[in-house]
Amino acid sequence: MATLATNVFEVLFENPFILPSGIVTETAEHKRAVEAGYGGITLKSFTFERREGNPLPRLWKYDAGLINSVGLRNAGIEEGSKEAGEFIKTYGAQAPIIVSLFATKIKEFLYLVEKIVPQAPAAIELNLSCPNVDDEFGKPLGMEKGAAGQIVAEVKKISGSIPVIAKLSPNVTNIAEIAKACADGGADGITAINTAGPGMIIDIKKRKPIIGAKMGGVSGPAILPIAVRCVYEIYNAVNIPIIGMGGVSTVTDIVQMFMAGSALVGIGTVTYTKGMKVIVELKQQLLDYMDQNNITDIKELIGVAHGA
Ligand SMILES: Cc1cc2nc3c(=O)[nH]c(=O)nc-3n(C[C@H](O)[C@H](O)[C@H](O)COP(=O)(O)O)c2cc1C
Q: pTM for the whole thing?
């Protein structure tokens, strides 16, 4: 009998499907995701200070996905770490809870990590890739290998036994090189990819960009081939598990992600467009695929597109 359960970062996931950071933002929605049956939940990225986010509208649905410029709207680490702690206490036994952190300085990252370690998340994801904060901060920290490796190495000194995952952007010339720097810095895993772009959609009646911040990150089916390529390249460069995400909507997309090298798969924008019930369908469809192909363990699929 095929099983979806999988052990990654020495953490047991009942199934390999992760709710990516920011797809939902409220505690009640994260709770619904646990109940719907996601194998793991990544909370919305927390920053040092409270952030109201970018001007409205922040999100727009189009034929091939979403464009968003939420701008890391969150309560800030003081309130966020308490919220995360309570959530982990209540739901952590049902599904591993990953906490996502975003900072613009290494010192700030370390402060966030210090605050979150006592809450004992299943893992800490360092968002080295948010595209929607450029105006205020300049280029996100960690979009080049030197800084990315350094952040991970510093964080690893204070994260204890909690796995540290680096989340990378596709909007770079060499994602594999950045992933390798993170692995060399001691990262326990890589998440790829954050949104692509930035992109822009123009309202032709109003004759101006639809999104309040004019441009935003692109997610959903449009970016699947970019995500698969990124995971493939990262798998060639590192020996740590990859959480592959970006446009995954169907069981075929999921299998592609495993074959490219993912150990876990993020189910993001499709959750937003189809609702959380999608996870129930995808779990069954993956089990059916495994049965039809005589696969009992997901690990049999990881990286097979690379050949022997
Ligand atoms: C509305 C929205 C908000 C997001 N917020 C975050 C965030 O706070 N932190 C983060 O690391 N990624 C964030 N992301 C990126 C997703 O976690 C994911 O990497 C990306 O959407 C690609 O996966 P998908 O195509 O399955 O959605 C956000 C994406 C969307 C659509």
A: 0.97
